[in-house]
Amino acid sequence: MHFFCNVSALETSITQIPGLLPRKAALLLKECNIATIGDLLQWYPFRYIDRTRIFTVKEIVEELPYVQLIGRIEKVEIKGKERTQRMTAQFRDQTGTIELVWFQGINYAREKIKPGVDFLLFGKPTLFNGTYNIAHPELELFSPEKLATASTLQPVYSSSEAMKRNWLDTKGMANLIRQALNMVSAQIKETVPDEIIQQMQLIPLNIAYHWIHAPGNAQELMFAERRLKFEELFFLQLKLLLQNRINKTSIKGFPFEKIGEVFNGFYKNHLPFELTNAQKRVVKEIRADVAKPIQMNRLVQGDVGSGKTIVAFLSMLIAIDNGFQACLMAPTEILAQQHFASLQPLAEAIGVKISILTGSSKKKARDILHADLVSGELQILVGTHALLEDKVVFKNLGFVVIDEQHRFGVAQRAKLWAKNVLPPHVLIMSATPIPRTLAMTAYGDLDISIIDELPPGRKPIFTKHHFEKDRPRVLEFVKSQVEIGRQVYVVYPLIEESEQLDYKNLMNGYEHLVAWFPPPKYHVSVVHGKLKPADKEFEMQRFVKHQTQIMVATTVIEVGVNVSNASVMIIESAERFGLSQLHQLRGRVGRGADQSYCLLLTSFKLSKEARRRIETMEETTDGFRIAEVDLELRGPGDLQGTQQSGTLDLKLSDIVKDNKLLIESRHLAERILQDDAQLEQPYNIRLKLRLKELEKKMMNWGRIS
Ligand code: ADP
Ligand code: MG
After folding, report:
1. Given a cut of 90, is residue 646 above it in pLDDT?
2. How confident is the model at residue 636 (pLDDT cuts 50, 70, 90)?
3. Contact (CB, 8 A) for 661 and 236
């Protein structure tokens, strides 16, 4: 076929499919981003209907999405007039009858129906007024031979209303795909070397495309899925690894060649505690990175309380030893304040000048700060987004720490890069641990360090679930903790959809607590989003200074606040929180030497997922383990920070469910690049070509969108 001349078969435009009207082609582009035959073939069924299974009328229950029945049709009746006209019939098999209904295409259906012969019926049963019926069933004359030869797993494609109106429903899509596949099947080239195909026990690519769209049986489907998932995951990993290599060789950065007096002086004389091995390892990794004339982009992952701050601080000291300035950016004012409060004494101990800049910094302080930054006198600046402003000019910014990276977008990162002639090294601290394989994929362009060890002497937080009815017992317990001088958080959910009610619950809860813990002996703080920032700050400070024993709050305390005397975290309506959110909240206690407690209060009725979340919280305090379960429950789509990364555009694979294949693909890609970093060997030619194709595709999309 001449039109394949220079283009790979899969890159052929769908407009080349004979009989596909331009209008439909345009619709496919608009609704599904399908431009090429390859796109079309990758419009995978989202599920399959098992056409081998024949039900009986008696077996019908509401949950069945579809049933297939064999029987005869009787009592055909036309009811109503004109616009309300409908046709009904009874479908009978050995076990009973069910009503069929048609609202449209009545004449056509009526012609098709013959009395006294067996039909194979396919349709969705719905419960209406206490009995089941099937609207617009698919009907065909039944013959045993036909059933034996029919494709058994029937694909179901997603399609929009507009597509359905244009005959691009499941059937239409199946037909179109079949046609396209027949057209190009012979030209679909292998994308990986034969050796890999053998080693990974993959089926040929063109067969995989056939079997995914029209599997003869469950096993064919499994083989097809494995091949195509591998295709996605492997090339994704290969791309990420190559990109990472390019970043490392092409983005120049400032080499921090020496470790000097500032770092060594602090390390020897002022380090408030011995670093954990994990902290030491990560500091080493950072030291090795920044010594090179290449910009560092490193993500430090560590559970809440694992001690990321000191690692960041030590890294900043290396910058200072080399004549550079450093900054630390936090997502909220409170967090920035807290970082500043903990770093200031450390910095001052070694004569390093540190300051803070946030949205609420006064003009006069700002002016001084700006001047000190430009002169280079100020060495460390802590702050919020305010640091990004163009007015904030450094003499020589060399190192940037970003806390909680998911709150910063790519554009903001770019702004920071522009603050010096070469981009500063970037260290990102993430308090939301995610499984390593996912991190590698979601943040493929970053190097990753993991602090997988908590400072010594931490007692695991005792976590327990209670139903509402136990509240009095829970409050007795709170009282006993308050009596021995501990402080307590009580957290309420707050979401937009039910904001009014949520506030009401919070305030009711607050009043209830005040009744239990009346002044003047006790004091209860309350903090929520409706308070003015100054009032919020005031209330927080009262708790920090231990002027109040109990802090009632919405999730504002989720990140940050460090009150080591707080030993109890009570989470109200815990079933409404996500797992990683619960874990973050729990991380607010257990910061001191005392035994700490996290009590999860829920209503009596719990969904299966909520139960799993609560149980997981009771079982483990390991953030990475929790992240895994969270991912399993929610899927990676919801994961903070991954949406914007754009690398998770996977059509078939699921990072959680296909984790094993993901890891295998990763290892394979690593091995291949180790032997042949540029993919120049003849045996890697297919890989090189395929990557080029993928790249071209990305560029084309870039132009279009
Ligand atoms: P996170 O990783 O959650 O940001 P932080 O850096 O805030 O954790 O550290 C949590 C607490 O643990 C802080 O009070 C910090 O001073 C303390 N800490 C950090 N590292 C150690 C260590 N190696 N030994 C003892 N305490 C430590
Ligand atoms: Mg922190």
Report:
1. no
2. low
3. no
**Residues sharing a CB contact under 8 Å with residue 650, sequence separation 6 or more, in sequence order:** 232, 233, 236
Q: Tens digit of pLDDT for each residue in 485-499? A: 999 999 999 877 788
Q: Quick one: how far is CA 436 from the chain centroid?
A: 13
In this predicted structure, what is the pLDDT of residue 139?
85
Q: Does residue 305's CB lie within 6 angstroms of at least one atom of ligand 1?
A: yes
The burial class, CB within 10 Å (0-12 / 13-18 / 19+), for 101 is middle
Tell me the percentage of the chain whose pLDDT exceeds 70: 91
Atom 24 of ligand 1: nearest residue by CA position: 455
> Which of 280, 306, 594 has most ligand 1 atoms within 8 Å of CB, for mutation?
306
Is a pLDDT exceeding 90 seen at residue 204? yes
What whole-number distance in Å separates Cα of residue 572 and Cα of residue 468?
9
The SS3 of residue 68 is strand
Answer yes or no: are the C-beta atoms of 237 and 445 closer than 8 Å: no
Q: Amino acid letter at 674? A: Q
In 3D, which of 332, 333, 335, 339 has the Cα closest to residue 354?
A: 339
| Choice from 270, 271, 273 to test ligand 1 binding pocket (greatest atom count within 8 A of CB) | 273
Whole-number pLDDT of residue 498 = 82
- What's 430-450 look like in SS3? ECCCCCHHHHHHHCCCCEEEE
Q: Whose CA is nearest to atom 26 of ligand 1?
A: 455
Contact 574, 518 (CB under 8 A): no
Ligand at shortest distance from the CA of 592: 1
pTM of the predicted model as reported, rounded to 2 decimal places: 0.67
User: At residue 49, what are phi and psi to the nearest 5 degrees?
Assistant: -105, 130
